[in-house]
Design brief:
four-stranded antiparallel β-sheet, 23 strands, mainly beta
């Protein structure tokens, strides 16, 4: 649980990390392949001489660096450590290498989200070493591996266990949990001018079965301007234990138009 699954090609994905229990973090790298008939799959452990330390609740995404596809793993936590390191796996060679970011580095964190904007990584939210939510958005330039903080028109409310997507030069933060009882919907951040807009969700969900936008995954459907949410939920002091029973489709055409 709490591993990452990153799409490499149309039929291959990389599974990395996670944990068997709170005392048993993993640093396994496994290649998940969908077989040609589309009905079967294989999962093959990769034998790596160098790889990141065991962790869970890290972020992982795919980026093209100088014409080479790379999986980027950042942060995460282990039994006693919150990580602030950054690793690359070359999709072709299946080899890991660590990138040493210049000091001072972005705040070590876990439960963050990471997505790609051109040649830059956008690392948003998460929990720091004190388990405090992070609001600062870090931009990591993959050309020279320098980093900076995104300047915005207003303070981004700290959050974690959210997802993020870049659409038309807009960074979208979906859901998440924060310190306040506010339920996060969608936050849009214009990456060109820093304008921040917050949108609440309009749903027909009943109070007995609320939509839980944390600990979930999401995919953006470009042709339809919709987000599909898979999973989500957990223990909530206000609502008890709830999980989203079915995928949820969010129409964000008014936000990204």
């Amino acid at each position: 649980m709490h591993h990452t699954l990153t799409r490499l090609t149309d039929n291959q994905l990389l599974i990395f990390g996670g944990r068997k229990s709170p005392a048993k973090p993993l640093n396994n790298s496994c290649l998940f392949s969908i077989l040609p008939d589309g009905k079967r799959y294989s999962c093959k452990p990769l034998q790596c001489s160098v790889e990141p330390e065991a962790r869970w609740r890290h972020s992982s995404t795919l980026i093209n660096i100088s014409g080479s596809k790379q999986v980027v793993v950042y942060g995460g936590k282990s039994t006693k450590i919150v990580f602030g390191d950054l690793w690359l796996m070359d999709v072709e060679s299946k080899k890991w290498s660590e990138v040493v970011l210049p000091q001072p580095r972005p705040t070590p964190r876990h439960s963050q989200s990471c997505c790609v904007w051109g040649s830059q990584l956008l690392i948003t939210g998460g929990l720091d070493s004190n388990e405090d939510p992070v609001g600062v958005i870090a931009l990591v330039n993959t050309v020279d591996w320098t980093w900076s903080t995104l300047k915005t028109s207003q303070v981004i409310q700290p959050r974690y266990s959210h997802t993020s997507h870049v659409v038309n030069d807009q960074l979208l933060l979906i859901g998440g949990v924060g310190l306040s009882p506010v339920t996060f919907g969608v936050t849009s951040i214009n990456l060109l001018n820093g304008l921040v807009l917050n949108y609440s969700l309009s749903t027909d969900a009943s109070p007995e079965k609320p939509i839980m936008l944390f600990k979930f995954t999401s995919e953006f459907l470009k042709d339809e301007n919709k987000l599909v949410v898979f999973g989500g939920g957990g223990n909530c002091f206000s609502f008890g234990t709830h999980f989203n029973a079915t995928p949820i489709c969010l129409d964000i055409s008014n936000i990204v138009s």
